[in-house]
Amino acid sequence: MGGDIEPVGIASLSLSGLAVPIYNNEPKSFMNQKLTDRYLPWQPMSFAGVAAFAHAPLFRLLMVTSLFLFLTGATVIWLFARAYLPVLEGAMSNLPDEAYIQRGFLEWSGAPEAMLKQGAFLAIGVDLQGSPSLQTSADLNVLLGPTSWRIGSLLGEVELAYPITGKIELNRVELSAWWGAWEPVLVIGGSLATSMAVFCGWALVALVYMPMIRIVSFLGGRDVTLLGCWKLCLAAFLPGTLLWISTMIMYGLSRVPLLGLPFVSAAYLIVHSIYVVFAVTRLPGVSVAGSLGHPFTSSAQDRDPSHHRENPFSLDD
Questions:
Q1: DSSP conformation class of 280
Q2: Is residue 159 part of a domain?
């Protein structure tokens, strides 16, 4: 009808996996140029949601990523407070009146073989004679020896020598007072350090994936820049993060054994790879045929019709 406006271009807005058509009267060749404004990325749980972050502002991706990192840090604090803190404080209350580490040796006035505190997740003891009777069924065992301390679990054992310089007090009074003063700083600082380490790992892996994603998207005719490939790969880590957080909570509740954590870590990487592969297929296609250009150069000018020179030999006026 004369008064109706017939839609020329149709974009697709993905919200929670639902495609909502958006009608626009502009020519189709300009639709990809406006897809950044059409996408409203807010959740990375679907393939289309992860793909939307490739065209989103970097600040928006970092804001969503910060939320997941906050949940990761909160989970670390909760797990420490539930599984390890009671054993740690109990072991400090059972320390002798005189104990310290100096010149690489442990000076200990208490019993040479003693289990200071033991739980299902952590056991702390002292073993100055190498007795095998102090082995426990805890997931993590910490034993103080004459010249080193050993950290062992079902996944292996590490032995660390005492420092040969300085003096470290291990008596009950001084160590308990030191821990009481620094506990909030150490717990929160450890949580922040864990979150930052996780983010740095994501960023580095995204840098490795970035050229591969760019090549695949180029061959598939998908509209994305190098930075967009990095953002897509980073966003693909977020769905698996919820799997990791859920597993840590189940581990803290004794619903998942220690030996199940390596399998969950492998599943975490598999989930990330799946999201990367399928998110690439949800990227918008290049609207102008033959305007792909080079896969590692900016495609802004290639997508803009004003930068395509007219054919000097054309017969069109």
A1: H
A2: yes
| Strand-pair partners of 117 | 124
Q: Which residues of 242-281 are buried (b: 16+ CB within 10 A; e: fewer)?
A: eebbebbeebbeeebeeeebeebeeebeebbeebbeebbe
210 with 292, same domain: the answer is yes
H helices within 132-236, ranges in order? 172-219, 226-235
Same domain, 71 and 32: yes
Cβ count near 94 (within 10 Å): 15
- Residue 211 is encoded by which pair of tokens? 């050229």
Q: Are residues 161 and 282 in the same domain?
A: no
Q: Are residues 288 and 219 in the same domain?
A: yes
Same domain, 193 and 290: yes
What are 16-65's pLDDT values in tens digits?
333 344 334 444 433 444 444 444 677 889 999 999 999 999 999 999 99
Flag whether 39 is in a domain.
yes
pTM: 0.75
Structure-token pair, residue 199: 């983010």
Element (H, E) at 18: strand 18-24
In 3-state terms, what secondary structure has residue 52?
Answer: helix
Domain limits for position 157 = 96-170
Q: Which of 143, 170, 197 is the last residue of a domain?
A: 170
- In 10 A of CB 300, how many CB atoms? 11
Question: Torsion-angle region of residue 259: left (phi > 0), alpha (psi -120 to 50) or beta?
Answer: alpha
